[in-house]
Amino acid sequence: MQVEDVQKVCVLGAGAMGAGIAQVCAQAGYAVAMRDIEHRFVESGFRRIRGPLLKRVEKGKMTQEEVDGIVSRIEGTTDMALAVKDAQLVIEAVPEKMDIKRQVLAEVDKACPPEVVFASNTSSLSITEMASVTRRADRFVGLHFFNPAPVMKLVEVIRGSETSKDTVAFAKAFCAKIGKEPVEVKEAPGFVVNRLLVPMMNEAFNLLQEGIASPEDIDKAMKLGTNMPMGPFELADFTGLDIGLDTMETLFRETGDARFRPSPLLRQYVRAGRLGRKAGRGVYEYGQAP
User: Fold this and answer.
1) Which of 69, 25, 27, 76 lies closest to 47 in space, CA to CA?
2) Which overall architecture, per CATH, does domain 193-279 show?
3) Where are the domains of the chain?
C-alpha cells in the first residue's frame, strides 16, 4: 500500500480521539467514515467536530464554507460494513481496553480486504497483541495521536513485532499528508511520551496526597519552573483521570516498575467519579459536565 492509494479512511470510534482523527483526515481532503456503536455517539462526534470549527469561524480564522466542506467529507454510521467499504486505511480509536480493541479489530478484519492497513490509536497497549487477532499483522501499526488531535502535531508511529518496514513507511508518509509530525517508536509499554509523562503526573498525585503543596501551586510550579503549558493536574483533568489511571496500570502491569504504581489518591478520585473536565470535576471543579 502506498500513501497515494488512500482515498478513504475509516475511523472506528466517535469519542474525543475518534472525532478528532476524523476531522484531521477530512481537513486533509480524505473521505472519512466515522463509525460508532450507537447513533447518539456518532452525533456526539459530529458536535465535537463542529463546535471548535464554528468558533474559528466566529474569530474569522475559517469560513463557513470551509467548515461545511470538512464536515461533508465525514460520513457517520453504525454499520461496520458501510464504514469500511472502499477504505484503504482503518484507524481504531475505541476505548483503551484491550478486550474491547481485540473484539472490534477481529470484527473489522473479517470485513476488509487483505491489503487494507490497520492502525490503532492506543496510548499504551501492545500493538503486537492487537495485531494477533487479525490476518494482517504485517500491515498493523500504532498511530498514537494526542488530544486534541486537530491541534497537536505529534503522532507516535509504533512498530509491533510483526509490522513490516513498508507499513511503517506508509504510516509516516500518511502522517505527513495530514499535517502531523511522526516519530517512530518500537513497541514498549507507554511508548515514548507516556513513558516519560505518566510518572510525573503520578508523582503529582503523591505530592498532593502527602500535603506537600496545593494543586494550584503544584501546577504553577511546573508551568513556571519547566515552561510547561499546562500543569500536571490541569493536564490530567483535560485528558481524563480514568484514562491516566488505565495507562498507569498498563505500565505497572507490563514492567513491574514501582515508578508506575498508581497513586492511591488518583484511584480514589476515579472511584468517586472525579474524571476531569468531561465529568465536570476532577482535581478541580468545573461545574456541569459538557
Assistant:
1) 76
2) Orthogonal Bundle (1.10)
3) 3-186, 193-279
Give CA–CA dist 238/254, Å, rounded.
Answer: 25
CATH 3.40.50.720 fits 3-186, yes or no: yes
Question: Which of 144, 202, 234, 263 is the catalytic position?
Answer: 144
- Let me know if 156 is a catalytic residue: yes
Cell numbers of 128, please? 503486537
39 noted as active-site residue: no
The active-site residue, picked from 156, 202, 234, 263, is 156
Let me know the angle formed at the C-alpha of 31 by 7 and 177, rounded to the nearest 5 degrees: 60
State yes or no: is 227 an active-site residue: no
Q: Is-catalytic flag, 147?
A: no
What tens-digit pLDDT sequence spans the chain (290 residues)? Answer: 899 999 999 999 999 999 999 999 999 999 999 999 999 999 999 999 999 999 999 999 999 999 999 999 999 999 999 999 999 999 999 999 999 999 999 999 999 999 999 999 999 899 999 999 999 999 999 999 999 999 999 999 999 999 999 999 999 999 999 999 999 999 998 999 999 999 999 999 999 999 999 999 999 999 999 999 999 999 999 999 999 999 999 999 999 999 899 999 999 999 999 999 999 999 999 986 65
Q: Of these residues, 126, 194, 202, 263, which one is catalytic?
A: 194
Rama region for 176: left / alpha / beta (φ>0; ψ in -120 to 50; rest): alpha
Q: What is the pTM of this model?
A: 0.91
